[in-house]
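Marked as duplicate of an earlier ticket. Keeping the data here for the record.
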Amino acid sequence: MQTWAFNWRYFLLTNHAIHRDLNSVVMDYLVSEGYPSAARKFASEANVQPTSGVNSIQERIDIREAIHSGNIQVAIEKINELNPMLLDRDRSLHFALLRLQLVELIREGIGLPVDDSKTLAAINFSETVLGPRAAPNAQFLEDLERTMMLLIYDYTNIPDEYADQLEPQFRKDIAQRVNEALLKEQGERNKARLYDLVRLRAWSEMKAREMNKDLPEHLSLGLESGRGQEPSHSNGEGEAMVA
């Protein structure tokens, strides 16, 4: 098996076309997932032309951080600054952001009396901003009703089917949708090609095992550093757009 690994590395090093393709995949990942410093440095060192998306990485990071911290109005304003037409064209994404904004208003009123100003603000936002948008769309209406259920239960007894809206992952999922939509609007892939390659590799291994090919029990990706240790997934910059 070591011979296979050696030959594969030798093939990559000597096949310039494959090497260029791999550089392109790396650049695509850095831009899509949001590593601005790494993308510019890699472009310089690998002589790779950066894509147009590299110029918007910092703006997308700022939007991501605003959503992750619950500052949805700030995020919406930044989205409109970067792409004024996106939310007008993508009504589903706009509604998802406004719904998340409602969740944040409800979060502020958790544990307070139902007539508290924060709770009343959430109800008013639902009626005036989300209600008119949800009325003609069955899915929007269902999502809005699901969010309003958060007002019915005591915070400590919210069923899981509704409580997930208060989890950090709910913010992350919408942040990822925003990132993908912005990339698509810029003519970029909305997901890094690396993910497709990983899925293709997993599918190929599965098919090979189904055909009883002679494969080791654990087929490494060949990314080990040092003595069989997988390399760190941190870029040391704290800039990742991964949601």
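See parent ticket for discussion. Residues 1-6, 222-243 have pLDDT under 50 and may be disordered.
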